[in-house]
Design a protein that fits this description.
Blueprint: H1 2-10, H2 16-26, E1 32-35, H3 39-47, E2 56-59, H4 69-79, E3 85-90, H5 91-96, H6 102-106, E4 112-118, H7 136-144, H8 152-158, E5 161-165, H9 168-175, E6 185-190
Parallel strand pairs: 1-2, 1-3, 3-4, 4-6, 5-6
Helix pairs in contact: 2-3, 2-9
C-alpha cells in the first residue's frame, strides 16, 4: 500500500526525488549504483523500493560530505567495465569533484552514466533546521549558493555525451536507451 501511494504521488511529477525513484527502477539487473551525498542518498533511503533485481550500491562520505563522489563512481566503473554504472549526484557535489572526470579518458571508462540533479544549489539545506534561522537573502547566499550553471561544457570538456532531460520521463528514456551504457554520458535534469 505504501509503495502504491508513492508511485501515484510521483506519477507525472518532476522532482529530484522522483528522478531518483525512476532511475533506480530503470537500471538493468546487476548494475552498479553510486549515490551522491546530500539529497540523492536521502531520496534513495526514503523512496528506494524493495526489488528482486540485484544491484550493487555504493556511497562515499568525503571529509566535507560531498567531495570525491564522482571519483568514487569512476573507480567503481573502472573496476568492472562490463557492468553498467550509474552515479546519481547533485549539482554542488558534482561541481566539487569535476576534475575527477579526467579519469574517463585516462582509464577509457565507457560504462558510466551520471544523472545530475541540478536544482541550482544546495537544496538539502531547505530541509534542515538552519533554513529557519536566516532571512531568505542570507540563507540563499550562505547555504543554497545558486550558481545558475548547466554542465554541458563540462561534458564536452571531458568527452561525455551530454543528454539534457526536461522531466522524469526523460530520465527513464535516457537510462533505457539502446546502447546507452556503452559510452560515458551526463544526463542533466534541471529542476
Amino acid at each position: 500500500m505504501t509503495w502504491e501511494v508513492v508511485n501515484d504521488a510521483f506519477a507525472g511529477v518532476t522532482s529530484d526525488a522522483a528522478a531518483v525513484w525512476a532511475a533506480v527502477q530503470a537500471l538493468p539487473a546487476g548494475a552498479n549504483l553510486v549515490m551522491g551525498n546530500s539529497l540523492p542518498i536521502r531520496h534513495l533511503d526514503q523512496f528506494g523500493q524493495p526489488s528482486p533485481k540485484p544491484l550493487r550500491v555504493f556511497g562515499n562520505r568525503g571529509a566535507s560530505g560531498i567531495d570525491g563522489n564522482t571519483s568514487t563512481a569512476l573507480g567503481v566503473a573502472s573496476a568492472d567495465p562490463s557492468r553498467p554504472t550509474l552515479l546519481i549526484t547533485g549539482d554542488i557535489t558534482f561541481y566539487h569533484d569535476l576534475n575527477g572526470l579526467l579519469a574517463i579518458q585516462h582509464n577509457q571508462i565507457h560504462n558510466l552514466t551520471i544523472l545530475l540533479l541540478n536544482n541550482n544549489g544546495g537544496g538539502i539545506f531547505q530541509r534542515l533546521p538552519v533554513a529557519a534561522v536566516y532571512d531568505e537573502q542570507a540563507f540563499n547566499r550562505l547555504f543554497i549558493t545558486p550558481h545558475n550553471l548547466n554542465f554541458s561544457h563540462a561534458a564536452a570538456l571531458y568527452g561525455l555525451e551530454y543528454v539534457p532531460v526536461p522531466d522524469v520521463a526523460g530520465v527513464t528514456a535516457a537510462l533505457t536507451a539502446a546502447n546507452g551504457w556503452q559510452r560515458p554520458r551526463l544526463i542533466e535534469l534541471h529542476e
